[in-house]
Every structure is written in structure tokens, then in C-alpha cells.
Design brief:
By secondary structure, the chain is mainly beta. The protein has 3 helices and 53 strands. It is globular, with a radius of gyration of 31 Å. The protein starts with a helix and ends with a strand.
């Protein structure tokens, strides 16, 4: 008996200490859990390009689709502040997972701290009799749609050729025709020299006709410059798109713009181009009347940024008189014209221009260590087999287990924060911490870039089929690049650097980017993928077999669907999802 007691006493003490240790461990775990985020909202949601309406207080999402839409296998694109989203027990990946929306679907969002919230998504399909044109635009200019009179009107800038314009539109009907020609949004061109009748056919075969009238702004519009003592007004040298955008040009002559000058002009300024750089006008900028031989000459100076040329006359101009301005290689004089009602033209010749444009976004250690894929909060998922050239890494609380890329798919290095990564991974938590910090710095820089003349809302977010020149482009909407453009390399969007291999493109969107199935971001004119940057507030989806050139900096995730290729970098705050993709510079 004494022998048993001598064994039991130490065992009892050991069990007591074990209980204390377990309790202490649970207490420590609770403290750690309390520090985790409870955020679990769905902040954006769309189905096949149709944006849903989120009622945050009711936790409901509604999406309206055209008549005839098959809702049994729609793929949702969404962003969330949570750590994961499920429908029942099925994990949902934005831009990837198809669902049947024949009845409401409940999405469960889980926060980092394990708490959950439910959102109910309801999809409605327009009735068989629906036949409205809900939205309409041409060349990024939104039209006014009058549903009562079924008229659509819009005004395009002076100089626009309206004989072959492609309209962007949405409809609740099943088809749209102009005469016998079937109309496809962003694809079908029409001659808008006279009103065009669009016939919308509903599911029940009833029709509605909308008349589209396009007006082009008159080229004789005048610009009145201020008198002495007031701030000068910028004189636009191009009536169509603001200032000149010429990466490289010699003796470029810009189309004349009619202007009226009144008051005592002390200083007149005009913007030379959209991009920053060095611009040297040739000759003297003067105001003169071609019918008079005498007058007071003036000179041109440039600001230190090389972006604004300033003309300063050597004497005050006579109030209420009209003058003609010319910049050329030969000096001119000017004199007053007493005919107050006369309207004259401003003619600008840029002379020799060598503009450098925007500087690339500084990726710091991300570039130095050639990270082509980097994720911070969650990780990298992969459905084999992908081919990755370059280095990848994850800096996540989940550690190396958040890296789902097999070693065999890599031509480069996998960096892991701990030993939980793939067997071939290099463990370097310090390097990853620096890289994700630099990724955040680069994201802020890209989002904050500006230029002399902003390009905002181009195409109302749909830039399919467009050819763009270097600069900064900004949208408050999503950005869509689909494959509705002409076949071949023109499918998608084309970036043209005009022979300047250092030209930089920066695209900024406060929502998401979708590159449609088979669509491409094409590069011509010596453009390089390393000089193209996308700054996104939500996610980027590269649909199946699409081809993307550039660096993606997103506050959420990058989703690559089956067969998509990325020539650039996927830098994401949350997830990077791969499905049999090609990634590399």
C-alpha cells in the first residue's frame, strides 16, 4: 500500500501541473485569437460582368440579369474583408467557382478570428417582355437615355469621326438590331452622321425602337482669355483630348482651334503635352494680325518641369481686340485688329520634342529579388500544372503551408517564412517581410501617380478594342478588357509606345480588373511589360486562355483561370490563385 501511495503522490502532482499548463495554453490562445481581425464583409460582388447591389445592413446582394440568362452556372467575382468564403461546405474563389442561382444562394464569410456572417445573393432575370436599352455610350462618352421617348442623345468632341463608331450598351432584351445587322456592344460599328434606329427584341418577340442622335462639338467654339491682373487661362492645343500627347515628335503641327482673345493679356499659358519631361519650343510665340505688318512681339519660356510654355508680350494688348497666335521657327509681330466680331485661329507648332514620360513605379526589393508572385495575408493556391519563371513567396501567419506551388513547376526560388513550405523552399522571413513592405510602398506610389491632363473614366471602364498611348489612366469603376475586338493580336486592348521602349503606362482603378476569356493586353511600338503597372483597389481576374502583360498591384487577390498567361508580376495583399498558368517576365 505504501508503495502505491509513493507512486500516486508524484503522479497526482504531475497531473495538476499538466492541467495548469493546458489552462495557461488556452488562455494564451484566447489572447492571440482576440487580436485577430473580426472583419467579414463582402465589399464588392458581380456576376458575369453585372455588378450586384449590396445591402450591408440587411446582408443581401441582388443582381439583375437580361432575359434568357442561364443562371445555373454563373461565376461570381467578389471581394471580402474576411479570410474565407463558403457556400455550405464548398469553398468559394472569386472569379473561379460556378454556382446555380436558380434560387437564393447563401454565402458564409469567415473572419480571421473565426466568427462568421451570411450574405444572401438573389439573381433576377428580366421578363420576357423586357426590351429596354439601359445604358449607352460611344468612345467613353455616356449618352442620355430617355425611356419615355425612346431617344438616346450624346455629344462627341470636335474632330471626332462618327462614320464608324462602336457603341457600348446594355439591354434587357434578347437581341439588338440596326436594320438587319445584329448589334454587339463594343463590337459593331455604325455611321452616326445621321440618327440611327436601334430595334430591341424581347423574349416574347415584341420590339422597341430607340433613336440614337450623335452631335459633334463645333470646331469654331471660342476661348476667352482674362484681362490684366487675373489668372491666365490654359489654352488647349487640341480640341479633342486636351493637351498634346507626343512621346517623340518633330515639328508636329496641331489642328487649328478658333479662339477669341479679349482684355489685356499679361501672360498666356498652354500645356505642351500630357506627360512630364523636357520640351524645348523652337522660335518665338507671338500674337499678331495677319492683315497688319506691325505690332509688339513676345517671347516664350518653359517651366522647370518642361510641361508649360508661357508667352509674355512686351506690351499690353488693346482690350476687346482680336489677335492670331503662332509659334514657329521665325519671329513674328502682332497688331490690333479693330474688327471686334472677327474670330481667328490659334495655330501651334511644337518644334522638336523629346519627352521622357512617366518614370516606372519603383518596386524596390520586389524587383531586386525578381518576385513574380508575392502574397501577404493568405497565400498562393495552385491547380497543377503551372509554369513559373522567377521567384515567389508568401508572408502569411499561416507560414509556408500557405504556398501551394510544387517545386517541379518552378524555374526560380520559392521563399517561405518557415519550414512549412515546399521541400525546395528557401526559408527567409526577413526577406519576405521587406518584400511585402516594399510591395505596399509601390502600391501607394502607383495609386498616387498623376499627370498634367488626367485621363479619367475612359470607355466607362470598358477599354476592349482600344489602342492606348503611354500615360496615367484612372477609373472609379471596374475595368473590362474582353475579346470582342477584331480577331488576331488586336483582340483585347493594345498599348502603343510609338517606338519608345522606356514609355510607361499606369492604370488606376478603385474597383476590379477583368481580362475576358481569350483576351489579350497587346504590346506594340517597343513597349515592355516591365513598364506597365495596374493599381487596383480590389481583385484582378485573368480569364481562361487570356494573355496579360504588366505588373498587378492589388489590395485583394489575383485570380488566374485555366490557361491564362501573365508576362509580368502578380503582387497581391491576400491571395494569388493559379490554375494551369504561365507566369514570368
Amino acid at each position: 500500500m505504501n508503495r502505491i501511495e509513493s507512486i500516486m503522490k508524484p503522479l497526482t502532482w504531475f497531473m495538476a501541473l499538466l492541467v495548469v499548463a493546458v489552462v495557461a495554453g488556452c488562455s494564451s490562445g484566447s489572447s492571440s485569437s482576440a487580436a485577430l481581425s473580426s472583419a467579414k464583409a463582402i465589399t464588392a460582388y458581380s456576376l458575369a460582368g453585372t455588378t450586384g447591389t449590396i445591402n450591408e445592413s440587411a446582408k443581401t446582394i441582388t443582381v439583375a440579369k437580361p432575359f434568357g440568362t442561364d443562371v445555373t452556372a454563373l461565376v461570381a467575382t467578389f471581394t471580402t474583408t474576411g479570410s474565407g468564403v463558403t457556400v455550405g461546405t464548398s469553398v468559394q474563389n472569386s472569379g473561379t467557382t460556378p454556382k446555380n442561382f436558380s434560387s437564393p444562394v447563401v454565402y458564409t464569410v469567415t473572419a480571421a478570428d473565426g466568427t462568421t456572417i451570411n450574405y444572401t445573393v438573389t439573381v433576377t432575370v428580366a421578363s420576357a417582355s423586357a426590351k429596354a436599352i439601359a445604358a449607352y455610350s460611344i468612345a467613353g462618352v455616356a449618352a442620355t437615355v430617355d425611356e419615355t421617348t425612346r431617344t438616346i442623345a450624346l455629344t462627341l468632341p470636335s474632330g471626332t469621326n462618327v462614320t464608324a463608331q462602336k457603341a457600348t450598351f446594355t439591354t434587357t432584351g434578347v437581341s439588338v438590331n440596326v436594320g438587319a445587322a445584329v448589334q454587339q456592344s463594343t463590337v459593331t460599328a455604325n455611321d452616326f452622321s445621321s440618327p440611327v434606329a436601334y430595334t430591341v427584341t424581347a423574349g416574347d418577340a415584341s420590339t422597341a425602337t430607340y433613336t440614337v442622335t450623335v452631335t459633334v462639338t463645333s470646331s469654331t467654339a471660342t476661348t476667352v482669355l482674362p484681362g490684366a491682373g487675373t489668372s491666365p487661362t490654359a489654352i488647349s492645343s487640341s480640341p479633342t483630348n486636351g493637351d498634346i500627347n507626343v512621346p517623340t515628335s518633330t515639328n508636329s503641327t496641331i489642328a487649328a482651334v478658333n479662339n477669341t482673345v479679349t482684355g489685356k493679356l499679361v501672360t498666356a499659358t498652354f500645356s505642351e503635352k500630357m506627360m512630364s519631361g523636357t520640351v524645348t519650343p523652337v522660335g518665338v510665340f507671338t500674337l499678331r494680325d495677319d492683315t497688319a505688318a506691325s505690332g509688339v512681339s513676345g517671347t516664350v519660356t518653359m517651366n522647370t518641369a518642361g510641361t508649360v510654355a508661357t508667352f509674355t508680350p512686351s506690351a499690353a494688348l488693346t482690350p476687346a481686340h482680336i489677335y492670331t497666335a503662332t509659334i514657329s521657327t521665325a519671329a513674328h509681330t502682332f497688331a490690333a485688329d479693330a474688327a471686334i466680331s472677327k474670330t481667328v485661329a490659334w495655330s501651334f507648332t511644337t518644334g522638336s520634342v523629346a519627352a521622357t514620360g512617366q518614370a516606372p513605379v519603383d518596386l524596390l526589393s520586389v524587383l531586386a529579388n525578381n518576385f513574380v508572385i508575392l502574397a501577404q495575408v493568405n497565400g498562393i493556391t495552385d491547380v497543377p500544372t503551372s509554369a513559373i519563371t522567377g521567384n515567389i513567396g508568401v508572408s502569411s501567419t499561416a507560414g509556408g503551408t500557405a504556398i501551394g506551388v510544387p517545386c517541379a513547376e518552378m524555374t526560380g526560388t520559392i521563399y517561405s517564412p518557415d519550414a512549412g513550405g515546399p521541400s525546395c523552399a528557401t526559408i527567409d522571413a526577413t526577406l519576405l517581410t521587406t518584400a511585402v513592405s516594399d510591395m505596399g510602398t509601390a502600391s501607394v506610389e502607383a495609386a498616387g501617380r498623376t499627370q498634367l491632363v488626367p485621363v479619367t473614366g475612359l470607355g466607362a471602364g470598358d477599354i476592349s478594342g482600344m489602342t492606348l498611348t503611354p500615360g496615367v489612366y484612372t477609373w472609379s469603376t471596374f475595368v473590362l478588357i474582353n475579346s470582342g475586338a477584331p480577331s488576331g493580336d488586336a483582340t483585347g486592348v493594345t498599348l502603343d509606345c510609338k517606338g519608345d521602349s522606356n514609355a510607361v503606362f499606369i492604370f488606376q482603378s478603385s474597383q476590379y480588373l477583368t481580362l475576358g476569356s481569350g483576351a489579350k493586353v497587346n504590346l506594340i511600338g517597343s513597349c515592355q511589360a516591365k513598364n506597365i503597372f495596374w493599381s487596383l483597389s480590389t481583385d484582378a481576374t485573368l480569364s481562361s486562355t487570356s494573355v496579360f502583360n504588366g505588373t498587378i498591384l492589388t489590395a485583394t487577390q489575383v485570380v488566374m483561370q485555366s490557361g491564362a498567361a501573365l508576362h509580368g508580376r502578380a503582387l497581391a495583399h491576400t491571395w494569388v490563385t493559379l490554375i494551369s498558368n504561365t507566369v514570368g517576365q
